[in-house]
TrEMBL record, chain A:
<feature type="domain" description="ABC transporter">
    <location>
        <begin position="3"/>
        <end position="227"/>
    </location>
</feature>
<dbReference type="InterPro" id="IPR051782">
    <property type="entry name" value="ABC_Transporter_VariousFunc"/>
</dbReference>
<keyword id="KW-0997">Cell inner membrane</keyword>
<dbReference type="InterPro" id="IPR003593">
    <property type="entry name" value="AAA+_ATPase"/>
</dbReference>
<keyword id="KW-0067">ATP-binding</keyword>
<dbReference type="GO" id="GO:0016887">
    <property type="term" value="F:ATP hydrolysis activity"/>
</dbReference>
<dbReference type="Pfam" id="PF00005">
    <property type="entry name" value="ABC_tran"/>
</dbReference>
<keyword id="KW-1003">Cell membrane</keyword>
<dbReference type="InterPro" id="IPR027417">
    <property type="entry name" value="P-loop_NTPase"/>
</dbReference>
<protein>
    <submittedName>
        <fullName>ABC transporter, ATP-binding protein</fullName>
    </submittedName>
</protein>
<keyword id="KW-0547">Nucleotide-binding</keyword>
<dbReference type="InterPro" id="IPR003439">
    <property type="entry name" value="ABC_transporter-like_ATP-bd"/>
</dbReference>
<keyword id="KW-0813">Transport</keyword>
<keyword id="KW-0472">Membrane</keyword>
<dbReference type="GO" id="GO:0005524">
    <property type="term" value="F:ATP binding"/>
</dbReference>
Length: 298, 504
């Protein structure tokens, strides 16, 4: 595992920001940590990068405890964050010139290719760049040394779709042999390339799955009954976010199996006219889980 | 890689470095222009201001450079780069040395050598001065820079320290410790070095800002305690060290009989200055300087009314016991039947007790200097010459009073603190009484560091009629012989009776 978190807890004074957080990311995976604002995504990433220290628990990156990351480890980790403060008084070219000697495997050809692609003004000071341009500079500085792990913390936040696509395309074009850990709100954009998803809610990881498993097991189910729908007294645990409209009853099935669906529906509702099972995109899954958590007060 | 980071910092912040160097060059240029006679005298104040500006700009530059890679941050780019924190710390320390230690050493050494001082003591003195500037300006600026994230935060901390200093100044009625006193200086330097090293270690090692800020606060309190510990503390340490003599080469006593006569001669400068009539009996071969005076006032029934360290009044005319140096007793003083010594009293104390009859007790903390060697030197007007044991000396006819010849010495780093000079006749005998003077600057570890940048010291005025500037001079060097105390008791007086107005 290139990243492994076990029972991580992070407190800020009396406030518990993260609790019992455990997840693992295998080499070559693209892991997306999703969650609402304040869920603890950025805190998790900052602890991974040894910018913050966990209050409790074990967090390792490339086999080393995050608190003991050395410059050797950091020379293999690329990092881009929406809140990353680049040295604003430096020009783009001077900044890259400054960083180059710190990385033994800095690829100048790759750097030039990316600079050409992003059309970055080398002589302009970083503080004079737009947010999109700054993220591009950070991305060049995160990929030019061919890292083993790329950590992206809300990298697309506030960017226009064109820039966003350009960045995603750029990341993907260098994704070979690269492990990516990303936190993002732009779920539709990342859905196309993530392999694993962890859903963080109020400092706790609600679930962690591969995108294939998630796509396979989560369905929006619509059941058309013979008469006006009346919700059953007890719902199966895997059915969440119920709703009714006339004689149509809907819910999200979180343990969907096509061969079992008919019998499950029959066991709860008896005779039904029609059952429809629709796959859900990542955004819908995320918002459903978030809504359920909110309603449950958890 | 620290050099690579330093290059980046210099490229980005060169205007600050240029400003620091420009200020140092300006200060040196002024020293050179003022020359031995330190003229025009107004330049001394300007020079002091430029020296202060040098320290302030250097401190500011260090804080800015440290904050360009801020330790107090969770978002800055350097945190996720393979930059060793030890390299970053080394870079910032090197930058601090570059704008404090290096220019001070190079320029002060240059000034010393240009004044004709010997290389080794000049190197020692400039190196020590440079180290003090680094520890006094560089380290605190590094500490402030590492525990703050922005310039306003740093300014807030500096402001709080200044406020604490002002508070201490008000509470202690301005009784700051003598920073030239070696125990005080050593204590302050130790506090700064220990706190600086702790804070840099904590910040660059563990990024433990809360603890570092605590260390900074404790160090500030300790430094303030040292600064505002009454001067007597340093003297007491010397006493514990066994450096205080039990026998004294001087005897001071209250000159009750000639009180009216003495006070009648006094010039009243300020309302809270009192004049203590003294009988002085001093070994004619010694020079005695007053370091400090502790005054206690008790009422007739023995109730203590006041006890504190008081300062000597300055600005009094020459030929009085308490002259511009703040108190020298020398062989020449024995010729006077009576003397007075002016001391400052806190104005509120004076106002409160001025008409209360009481017993005044003055404990004088004194140092005595014994002659070390006498050198014969011919110092014609306007020709600076190196004089062994003194430094570089020059004579001139006083520009205001042509009856007086000024002898000025730019003291060498290891020069005598006091000087006695007489004109010699062709037979080699002294013409008139020797004129004495002691330098107001202190020495540390045998090095007169102010010698490098403090012109206008060791000034002696000789009667022109004696042929000074034409005839050879006998110059006597002195060395410290002992430190001791003398207590003078005024049995029953009123403070108003000791003021200049009382005598008129």
């Amino acid at each position: 595992m290139i990243i492994e978190a076990r029972n991580i807890e992070k407190r800020f004074g009396g406030y518990k920001a993260l609790s019992g957080l455990s997840f693992s990311v295998a080499q070559g995976n693209v892991y997306a940590l999703i969650g609402a604002n304040g869920a603890g995504k950025t805190t998790t990433i900052k602890m991974m990068m040894n910018i913050m220290t966990p209050t409790r628990g074990d967090l390792t990156l490339m086999g080393a405890p995050s608190r003991k990351l050395t410059s050797h480890h950091l020379s293999q980790i690329g990092y881009v964050s929406e809140s990353q403060v680049l040295p604003g008084q430096m020009a783009v070219g001077a900044y890259l010139d400054y960083l180059r000697p710190f990385y033994s495997n800095w690829d100048e050809a790759l750097e030039k290719t990316m600079l050409r692609r992003f059309k970055l003004p080398m002589e302009r000071k970083i503080r004079a760049l737009s947010q999109g341009m700054r993220i591009k500079v950070a991305l060049v500085a995160a990929l030019a040394f061919k890292p083993k792990l790329l950590v992206l913390d809300e990298p697309f936040s506030g960017l226009d779709p064109l820039v966003r696509d350009d960045l995603i395309e750029s990341v993907l074009s260098h994704a070979e042999d690269l492990t990516i850990f990303i936190s993002s709100h732009e779920l539709n954009e990342i859905q196309g390339f993530v392999s694993n998803v962890g859903f963080l809610n109020q400092g706790r990881l609600l679930f962690e799955n591969s995108i294939e498993v998630l796509n396979a097991r989560v369905r929006k189910i619509r059941v058309t009954l013979q008469s006006t729908a009346r919700p059953p007294d007890t719902w199966p645990g895997a059915w969440i976010d119920p709703g009714t409209s006339g004689n149509v009853l809907s819910f999200v099935h979180t343990a969907f199996a096509e061969d079992r669906l008919a019998s499950e529906i029959a066991a709860v509702f008896g005779g039904v006219k029609f059952v429809q099972a629709e796959p859900m995109d990542l955004r819908s899954i995320f918002t459903t889980f978030a809504r359920v958590q909110q309603m449950n007060g958890g | 890689m620290w050099l690579h980071i330093l290059k980046k910092d210099l490229k980005l912040h060169w205007p600050y470095v240029a400003a620091v160097l420009a200020l140092k060059v300006a200060a040196v240029w002024m020293i050179q222009k003022m020359g031995i006679f330190a003229e025009p005298p107004q330049w001394l104040l300007l020079h002091a201001f430029i020296d202060l500006a040098f320290a302030v700009v250097a401190g500011f530059a260090i804080i800015v450079v440290v904050q360009s890679d801020p330790v107090v941050s969770n978002n800055d780019d350097w945190l996720i780069r393979p930059i060793r924190r030890s390299d970053l710390a080394l870079d910032k320390i090197a930058f601090a040395a570059l704008v404090t230690l290096l220019p001070t050493f190079v320029f002060d050494l240059g000034v010393g050598l240009m004044h004709g001082l010997d290389a080794l003591p000049a190197i020692g003195a400039s190196a020590y001065t440079a180290l003090v500037i680094f520890i006094g300006v560089g380290l605190p600026a590094l500490a402030v820079g590492t525990i703050t994230a922005s310039w306003p935060q740093a300014a807030g901390i500096v402001f709080a320290v200044v406020l604490a200093w002002i508070g201490g100044f008000i509470v202690t009625n301005g009784e700051m410790a003598d920073l030239g006193n070696w125990p005080v200086q050593l204590a302050l330097l130790a506090i700064l070095v220990i706190a600086g090293a702790l804070i840099l270690g904590l910040q660059y090692g563990r990024r433990n800002t809360a603890t570092s800020r605590g260390v900074f606060a404790v160090a500030t309190i300790c430094a303030m305690a040292v600064i505002f510990t009454p001067r007597i503390a340093g003297y007491l340490i010397q006493r514990v060290n066994g450096n205080v003599a039990t026998t004294s080469p001087i005897r001071l006593s209250f000159d009750d009989q000639s009180k009216a006569d003495v006070i009648g001669k006094a010039q009243q400068f300020m309302g809270s200055v009192i004049y203590v009539p003294l009988k002085v009996a001093v070994d004619p071969n010694r020079i005695v300087t007053i370091n400090n005076v502790i005054l206690s006032i008790a009422s007739d029934d023995g109730k203590p009314l006041f006890l504190d360290t008081i300062s000597l009044a300055s600005g009094h005319p020459l030929r009085q016991v308490s002259n511009v140096l703040g108190g020298i007793f020398d062989g020449a003083s024995n010729g006077h039947k009576s003397n007075y010594q002016a001391v400052n009293l806190p104005s509120d104390v004076f106002a409160k007790f001025k008409n209360t009859p009481g017993r005044l007790s003055l404990i004088y903390l004194l140092s005595s200097y014994a002659p070390a060697a006498t050198i014969k030197a011919t110092l014609p007007f306007g020709v600076p010459q190196k004089v062994a044991g003194f430094g570089v000396c020059e004579t001139r006819l006083n520009p205001v009073n042509d009856q007086v010849v000024d002898l000025y010495c730019f003291p060498a780093t290891n020069s005598s603190k006091c000087i006695a000079a007489t004109v010699l006749d062709p037979a080699g005998a002294s013409i008139g009484a020797p004129q004495t003077r002691c330098s107001t600057t202190s020495t540390q570890w045998g090095l007169n560091t102010a010698a490098l940048t403090g012109p206008g010291q060791l000034v002696v005025e000789l009667p022109a009629a004696n042929g000074a500037g034409i005839r050879p001079l006998a110059l006597t060097t002195y060395k410290v012989a002992s430190h001791f105390t003398q207590t003078v008791v005024l049995p029953r007086v009123r403070l108003t009776d000791l003021t200049g107005s009382a005598g008129s």
